[in-house]
From TrEMBL:
GO biological process, one term: methylation
Keywords, in A-Z order: Activator, DNA damage, DNA repair, DNA-binding, Metal-binding, Methyltransferase, Transcription, Transcription regulation, Transferase, Zinc
Reactions mediated catalytically: a 4-O-methyl-thymidine in DNA + L-cysteinyl-[protein] = a thymidine in DNA + S-methyl-L-cysteinyl-[protein]; a 6-O-methyl-2'-deoxyguanosine in DNA + L-cysteinyl-[protein] = S-methyl-L-cysteinyl-[protein] + a 2'-deoxyguanosine in DNA
Protein name: Transcriptional regulator, AraC family
Domain HTH araC/xylS-type positions: 79-156
PROSITE patterns, A to Z: HTH_ARAC_FAMILY_2, MGMT
Names of required cofactors: Zn(2+)
Cofactor stoichiometry and binding remark: Binds 1 zinc ion per subunit.
Lineage of the organism: Bacteria, Pseudomonadati, Pseudomonadota, Gammaproteobacteria, Pseudomonadales
InterPro entries: Ada-like_dom_sf (IPR035451), Ada_DNA_repair_Zn-bd (IPR004026), Bifunct_regulatory_prot_Ada (IPR016221), Homeodomain-like_sf (IPR009057), HTH_AraC (IPR018060), MethylDNA_cys_MeTrfase_AS (IPR001497), MethylDNA_cys_MeTrfase_DNA-bd (IPR014048), MethylDNA_cys_MeTrfase_DNAb (IPR036217)
Entry keyword Iron-sulfur: no
SUPFAM superfamilies: Ada DNA repair protein, N-terminal domain (N-Ada 10), Homeodomain-like, Methylated DNA-protein cysteine methyltransferase domain, Methylated DNA-protein cysteine methyltransferase, C-terminal domain
Amino acid sequence: MPDSARYWQAVCERDAAFDGRFVFAVRSTGIYCRPSCPARRPLRTNVSFHADAAAAEAAGFRACQRCVPNGQSPAQQLDALVAAACRLLESSEATPTLEQLAVRIGLSPSHLARAFKARTGLTPRAWAAAQRRQRLEAALPEADSVLEAALQAGYSGTRALYETPAALSPAQRRQRAAGERLRYAFAACPLGLLLLAASARGVCALLFGDDRETLLADLRQRFAAAELEEDPQGLGDWLAATLRQLDEPARAVHLPLDLRGSAFQQRVWQALQAIPSGQTRRYGELAEQLGSHPRAIARACASNPLGLLVPCHRVVGASGALSGYRWGVPRKALLLAAEADAGEREGN
Protein backbone atom coordinates (compact mmCIF):
# COMPACT_ATOMS: atom_id res chain seq x y z
CA MET A 1 0.00 0.00 0.00
CA PRO A 2 1.63 3.34 -1.02
CA ASP A 3 2.20 6.34 1.26
CA SER A 4 1.79 4.44 4.54
CA ALA A 5 3.09 7.38 6.56
CA ARG A 6 0.39 9.68 5.21
CA TYR A 7 -2.29 7.04 5.75
CA TRP A 8 -1.19 6.53 9.34
CA GLN A 9 -1.36 10.30 9.89
CA ALA A 10 -4.92 10.26 8.51
CA VAL A 11 -5.80 7.44 10.93
CA CYS A 12 -4.31 9.33 13.88
CA GLU A 13 -6.24 12.47 12.89
CA ARG A 14 -9.44 10.51 12.12
CA ASP A 15 -9.48 12.37 8.79
CA ALA A 16 -12.82 11.67 7.09
CA ALA A 17 -11.44 13.05 3.82
CA PHE A 18 -9.60 9.74 3.43
CA ASP A 19 -12.71 7.59 3.90
CA GLY A 20 -13.17 5.59 0.72
CA ARG A 21 -9.51 5.88 -0.25
CA PHE A 22 -8.30 3.08 2.01
CA VAL A 23 -9.12 1.08 5.15
CA PHE A 24 -6.82 0.08 7.96
CA ALA A 25 -6.75 -3.26 9.75
CA VAL A 26 -5.59 -4.15 13.27
CA ARG A 27 -3.85 -7.50 13.59
CA SER A 28 -4.45 -7.80 17.35
CA THR A 29 -8.26 -7.56 16.95
CA GLY A 30 -8.75 -8.87 13.41
CA ILE A 31 -10.91 -5.82 12.58
CA TYR A 32 -10.62 -3.25 9.79
CA CYS A 33 -11.94 0.33 9.97
CA ARG A 34 -12.36 3.60 8.13
CA PRO A 35 -9.67 6.25 8.70
CA SER A 36 -12.29 8.35 10.55
CA CYS A 37 -13.34 5.57 12.94
CA PRO A 38 -13.84 7.08 16.44
CA ALA A 39 -12.50 3.95 18.20
CA ARG A 40 -9.29 4.10 20.20
CA ARG A 41 -6.18 4.26 18.01
CA PRO A 42 -4.16 1.00 17.85
CA LEU A 43 -0.42 0.64 17.98
CA ARG A 44 1.24 1.41 14.65
CA THR A 45 3.01 -1.94 14.66
CA ASN A 46 -0.37 -3.72 14.62
CA VAL A 47 -1.76 -1.76 11.67
CA SER A 48 -1.85 -2.66 7.98
CA PHE A 49 -3.44 -0.67 5.14
CA HIS A 50 -5.70 -2.02 2.40
CA ALA A 51 -7.16 -0.48 -0.74
CA ASP A 52 -10.77 -1.21 0.21
CA ALA A 53 -13.09 -3.40 2.27
CA ALA A 54 -12.84 -6.32 -0.15
CA ALA A 55 -9.05 -6.37 0.10
CA ALA A 56 -9.16 -6.27 3.91
CA GLU A 57 -11.68 -9.10 4.05
CA ALA A 58 -9.63 -11.14 1.60
CA ALA A 59 -6.74 -10.75 4.06
CA GLY A 60 -8.92 -12.26 6.80
CA PHE A 61 -10.15 -9.19 8.63
CA ARG A 62 -13.80 -8.43 9.56
CA ALA A 63 -15.60 -5.09 9.42
CA CYS A 64 -15.79 -2.78 12.43
CA GLN A 65 -19.35 -2.56 13.75
CA ARG A 66 -18.83 1.04 14.82
CA CYS A 67 -17.73 2.76 11.60
CA VAL A 68 -19.12 0.13 9.16
CA PRO A 69 -16.31 0.43 6.58
CA ASN A 70 -18.07 -1.93 4.15
CA GLY A 71 -21.21 0.25 3.99
CA GLN A 72 -22.10 3.92 3.80
CA SER A 73 -19.98 6.28 5.86
CA PRO A 74 -21.71 8.26 8.62
CA ALA A 75 -21.45 11.36 6.45
CA GLN A 76 -23.04 9.57 3.50
CA GLN A 77 -25.80 8.26 5.75
CA LEU A 78 -26.54 11.81 6.90
CA ASP A 79 -26.44 13.00 3.28
CA ALA A 80 -29.12 10.43 2.44
CA LEU A 81 -31.25 11.33 5.48
CA VAL A 82 -31.11 15.05 4.70
CA ALA A 83 -32.06 14.30 1.07
CA ALA A 84 -35.01 12.25 2.38
CA ALA A 85 -36.01 15.14 4.64
CA CYS A 86 -35.93 17.48 1.64
CA ARG A 87 -38.23 15.14 -0.29
CA LEU A 88 -40.65 14.99 2.63
CA LEU A 89 -40.70 18.77 2.96
CA GLU A 90 -41.26 19.17 -0.77
CA SER A 91 -44.13 16.67 -0.90
CA SER A 92 -45.96 17.83 2.25
CA GLU A 93 -48.94 20.14 1.82
CA ALA A 94 -48.34 21.68 5.25
CA THR A 95 -44.74 22.17 6.40
CA PRO A 96 -44.07 19.65 9.19
CA THR A 97 -42.47 20.84 12.41
CA LEU A 98 -38.86 19.94 13.13
CA GLU A 99 -40.06 17.35 15.65
CA GLN A 100 -42.47 15.75 13.16
CA LEU A 101 -39.78 15.65 10.48
CA ALA A 102 -37.24 14.15 12.87
CA VAL A 103 -39.64 11.31 13.76
CA ARG A 104 -40.14 10.52 10.08
CA ILE A 105 -36.40 10.59 9.35
CA GLY A 106 -35.29 8.71 12.47
CA LEU A 107 -33.00 11.32 14.04
CA SER A 108 -33.32 13.52 17.08
CA PRO A 109 -34.56 17.05 16.27
CA SER A 110 -31.25 18.63 17.27
CA HIS A 111 -29.20 16.14 15.23
CA LEU A 112 -31.43 16.63 12.18
CA ALA A 113 -31.29 20.42 12.51
CA ARG A 114 -27.48 20.42 12.61
CA ALA A 115 -27.11 17.98 9.73
CA PHE A 116 -29.71 19.78 7.61
CA LYS A 117 -28.17 23.22 8.06
CA ALA A 118 -24.64 21.92 7.46
CA ARG A 119 -25.71 20.55 4.09
CA THR A 120 -28.20 23.16 2.87
CA GLY A 121 -27.24 26.31 4.76
CA LEU A 122 -30.85 26.60 5.98
CA THR A 123 -33.15 25.22 8.63
CA PRO A 124 -35.80 22.76 7.39
CA ARG A 125 -38.52 25.41 7.71
CA ALA A 126 -36.47 27.99 5.79
CA TRP A 127 -35.66 25.41 3.12
CA ALA A 128 -39.35 24.56 2.72
CA ALA A 129 -40.16 28.27 2.42
CA ALA A 130 -37.48 28.65 -0.26
CA GLN A 131 -38.97 25.75 -2.22
CA ARG A 132 -42.42 27.31 -1.99
CA ARG A 133 -41.01 30.58 -3.32
CA GLN A 134 -39.46 28.65 -6.22
CA ARG A 135 -42.87 27.20 -7.05
CA LEU A 136 -44.31 30.71 -6.95
CA GLU A 137 -41.63 31.95 -9.37
CA ALA A 138 -42.51 29.12 -11.74
CA ALA A 139 -46.25 29.78 -11.53
CA LEU A 140 -46.22 33.58 -11.89
CA PRO A 141 -45.44 33.88 -15.62
CA GLU A 142 -48.38 31.71 -16.69
CA ALA A 143 -50.95 32.41 -13.96
CA ASP A 144 -53.92 34.70 -14.59
CA SER A 145 -53.30 36.49 -11.29
CA VAL A 146 -50.85 36.69 -8.43
CA LEU A 147 -53.43 35.03 -6.18
CA GLU A 148 -53.74 32.05 -8.55
CA ALA A 149 -49.95 31.65 -8.64
CA ALA A 150 -49.77 31.90 -4.85
CA LEU A 151 -52.40 29.21 -4.34
CA GLN A 152 -50.68 26.91 -6.85
CA ALA A 153 -47.41 27.36 -4.96
CA GLY A 154 -48.97 26.40 -1.63
CA TYR A 155 -49.64 29.81 -0.07
CA SER A 156 -52.99 30.45 1.59
CA GLY A 157 -53.17 33.89 -0.02
CA THR A 158 -51.01 36.79 -1.22
CA ARG A 159 -50.30 38.49 2.10
CA ALA A 160 -47.19 36.42 2.82
CA LEU A 161 -45.69 37.42 -0.53
CA TYR A 162 -45.19 40.98 0.67
CA GLU A 163 -44.33 40.44 4.34
CA THR A 164 -40.63 39.74 3.73
CA PRO A 165 -38.55 42.88 2.97
CA ALA A 166 -36.45 40.97 0.41
CA ALA A 167 -39.49 39.75 -1.52
CA LEU A 168 -39.95 41.09 -5.05
CA SER A 169 -43.23 42.24 -6.46
CA PRO A 170 -44.64 40.29 -9.42
CA ALA A 171 -43.78 43.23 -11.67
CA GLN A 172 -40.14 43.15 -10.57
CA ARG A 173 -39.95 39.44 -11.24
CA ARG A 174 -41.01 40.06 -14.80
CA GLN A 175 -38.33 42.74 -15.20
CA ARG A 176 -35.39 40.38 -14.90
CA ALA A 177 -34.62 41.04 -11.22
CA ALA A 178 -35.13 44.82 -11.25
CA GLY A 179 -34.31 46.27 -7.84
CA GLU A 180 -32.73 43.03 -6.66
CA ARG A 181 -29.17 42.60 -5.38
CA LEU A 182 -27.32 39.47 -6.47
CA ARG A 183 -23.99 38.42 -4.99
CA TYR A 184 -21.46 36.48 -7.03
CA ALA A 185 -18.03 34.91 -6.69
CA PHE A 186 -15.51 33.06 -8.87
CA ALA A 187 -13.50 29.92 -8.18
CA ALA A 188 -11.04 27.84 -10.14
CA CYS A 189 -12.20 24.25 -10.62
CA PRO A 190 -11.39 21.14 -12.69
CA LEU A 191 -13.69 22.49 -15.44
CA GLY A 192 -11.83 25.80 -15.68
CA LEU A 193 -13.53 28.67 -13.88
CA LEU A 194 -16.95 28.77 -12.25
CA LEU A 195 -19.15 31.68 -11.26
CA LEU A 196 -21.70 31.19 -8.49
CA ALA A 197 -24.39 33.84 -8.01
CA ALA A 198 -27.01 34.01 -5.27
CA SER A 199 -30.10 36.01 -4.44
CA ALA A 200 -31.71 36.33 -1.03
CA ARG A 201 -33.48 33.04 -1.73
CA GLY A 202 -30.59 30.86 -2.86
CA VAL A 203 -28.21 30.06 -5.73
CA CYS A 204 -29.62 31.52 -8.95
CA ALA A 205 -26.71 30.82 -11.32
CA LEU A 206 -23.76 28.45 -11.53
CA LEU A 207 -21.87 29.08 -14.76
CA PHE A 208 -18.70 27.54 -16.19
CA GLY A 209 -16.19 29.22 -18.47
CA ASP A 210 -12.58 30.15 -19.11
CA ASP A 211 -12.38 33.80 -18.06
CA ARG A 212 -14.09 36.17 -15.65
CA GLU A 213 -15.20 38.71 -18.21
CA THR A 214 -17.19 36.20 -20.27
CA LEU A 215 -18.82 34.68 -17.20
CA LEU A 216 -19.76 38.06 -15.78
CA ALA A 217 -21.21 39.11 -19.14
CA ASP A 218 -23.33 35.93 -19.14
CA LEU A 219 -24.58 36.72 -15.62
CA ARG A 220 -25.41 40.31 -16.60
CA GLN A 221 -27.35 39.08 -19.63
CA ARG A 222 -29.40 36.70 -17.48
CA PHE A 223 -30.15 39.30 -14.79
CA ALA A 224 -29.93 42.52 -16.76
CA ALA A 225 -31.78 44.72 -14.26
CA ALA A 226 -30.19 43.40 -11.06
CA GLU A 227 -27.50 45.05 -8.98
CA LEU A 228 -24.47 42.75 -8.94
CA GLU A 229 -21.98 42.63 -6.08
CA GLU A 230 -18.88 40.44 -5.90
CA ASP A 231 -18.82 38.70 -2.51
CA PRO A 232 -16.28 35.85 -2.40
CA GLN A 233 -16.18 35.82 1.40
CA GLY A 234 -19.95 35.71 1.89
CA LEU A 235 -20.34 32.92 -0.67
CA GLY A 236 -17.27 31.02 0.48
CA ASP A 237 -19.14 28.13 2.12
CA TRP A 238 -21.38 27.55 -0.90
CA LEU A 239 -18.40 27.73 -3.25
CA ALA A 240 -16.53 25.20 -1.12
CA ALA A 241 -19.54 22.86 -1.08
CA THR A 242 -19.82 23.09 -4.88
CA LEU A 243 -16.13 22.35 -5.33
CA ARG A 244 -16.46 19.34 -3.01
CA GLN A 245 -19.17 17.93 -5.25
CA LEU A 246 -16.90 18.33 -8.26
CA ASP A 247 -14.18 16.41 -6.37
CA GLU A 248 -16.60 13.85 -4.86
CA PRO A 249 -19.55 13.51 -7.27
CA ALA A 250 -21.21 10.81 -5.14
CA ARG A 251 -21.78 13.37 -2.36
CA ALA A 252 -24.30 15.76 -3.88
CA VAL A 253 -24.48 19.21 -2.31
CA HIS A 254 -27.90 20.41 -1.15
CA LEU A 255 -27.93 24.20 -1.47
CA PRO A 256 -31.06 26.38 -1.58
CA LEU A 257 -31.83 27.10 -5.23
CA ASP A 258 -33.54 30.14 -6.70
CA LEU A 259 -34.62 28.66 -10.04
CA ARG A 260 -36.34 31.08 -12.41
CA GLY A 261 -38.09 29.79 -15.47
CA SER A 262 -41.39 28.87 -17.03
CA ALA A 263 -43.55 26.14 -15.56
CA PHE A 264 -42.32 23.72 -18.22
CA GLN A 265 -38.67 24.58 -17.60
CA GLN A 266 -39.20 24.03 -13.89
CA ARG A 267 -40.66 20.58 -14.57
CA VAL A 268 -37.69 19.65 -16.74
CA TRP A 269 -35.18 20.96 -14.20
CA GLN A 270 -36.87 19.01 -11.41
CA ALA A 271 -36.67 15.87 -13.55
CA LEU A 272 -32.95 16.51 -14.09
CA GLN A 273 -32.40 16.73 -10.33
CA ALA A 274 -33.98 13.28 -9.96
CA ILE A 275 -31.37 11.59 -12.21
CA PRO A 276 -28.89 9.82 -9.90
CA SER A 277 -25.20 10.62 -10.10
CA GLY A 278 -23.42 8.23 -12.46
CA GLN A 279 -26.53 7.68 -14.60
CA THR A 280 -27.84 9.34 -17.76
CA ARG A 281 -31.19 9.77 -19.48
CA ARG A 282 -31.95 10.31 -23.15
CA TYR A 283 -33.85 13.40 -24.29
CA GLY A 284 -36.56 11.07 -25.61
CA GLU A 285 -36.91 9.34 -22.23
CA LEU A 286 -37.45 12.65 -20.45
CA ALA A 287 -39.84 13.79 -23.17
CA GLU A 288 -41.94 10.65 -22.70
CA GLN A 289 -41.84 11.07 -18.93
CA LEU A 290 -43.02 14.70 -19.13
CA GLY A 291 -45.37 14.32 -22.08
CA SER A 292 -43.30 16.61 -24.29
CA HIS A 293 -40.90 16.54 -27.27
CA PRO A 294 -37.14 15.85 -27.15
CA ARG A 295 -36.40 19.25 -28.71
CA ALA A 296 -38.37 21.00 -25.98
CA ILE A 297 -36.39 19.06 -23.37
CA ALA A 298 -33.16 20.06 -25.09
CA ARG A 299 -34.17 23.75 -25.07
CA ALA A 300 -35.00 23.60 -21.36
CA CYS A 301 -31.63 21.97 -20.67
CA ALA A 302 -29.86 24.66 -22.68
CA SER A 303 -31.60 27.40 -20.67
CA ASN A 304 -30.64 25.84 -17.33
CA PRO A 305 -28.77 28.52 -15.31
CA LEU A 306 -27.41 26.10 -12.72
CA GLY A 307 -24.73 23.81 -14.07
CA LEU A 308 -23.91 20.81 -11.86
CA LEU A 309 -26.61 21.62 -9.26
CA VAL A 310 -29.31 21.01 -11.88
CA PRO A 311 -27.45 18.26 -13.73
CA CYS A 312 -28.37 18.79 -17.38
CA HIS A 313 -25.04 17.11 -18.23
CA ARG A 314 -26.75 13.78 -17.42
CA VAL A 315 -28.97 14.01 -20.52
CA VAL A 316 -27.60 12.44 -23.72
CA GLY A 317 -28.71 11.94 -27.30
CA ALA A 318 -30.77 9.06 -28.67
CA SER A 319 -27.66 7.00 -29.44
CA GLY A 320 -26.05 7.80 -26.11
CA ALA A 321 -23.87 10.48 -27.69
CA LEU A 322 -23.07 13.47 -25.47
CA SER A 323 -24.50 15.94 -28.04
CA GLY A 324 -24.68 19.56 -26.89
CA TYR A 325 -23.97 21.16 -23.55
CA ARG A 326 -24.38 24.80 -22.59
CA TRP A 327 -20.81 24.97 -21.28
CA GLY A 328 -19.17 22.74 -23.87
CA VAL A 329 -19.16 19.00 -24.58
CA PRO A 330 -15.64 18.52 -23.11
CA ARG A 331 -16.91 19.73 -19.73
CA LYS A 332 -19.92 17.43 -20.03
CA ALA A 333 -17.62 14.48 -20.73
CA LEU A 334 -15.45 15.33 -17.71
CA LEU A 335 -18.47 15.55 -15.40
CA LEU A 336 -19.91 12.24 -16.57
CA ALA A 337 -16.54 10.49 -16.38
CA ALA A 338 -15.99 11.72 -12.82
CA GLU A 339 -19.45 10.54 -11.76
CA ALA A 340 -18.93 7.15 -13.41
CA ASP A 341 -15.57 6.73 -11.65
CA ALA A 342 -17.13 7.67 -8.32
CA GLY A 343 -19.91 5.14 -8.90
CA GLU A 344 -17.40 2.39 -9.61
CA ARG A 345 -15.49 3.21 -6.42
CA GLU A 346 -18.76 3.11 -4.44
CA GLY A 347 -19.64 -0.25 -5.96
CA ASN A 348 -16.27 -1.86 -5.25
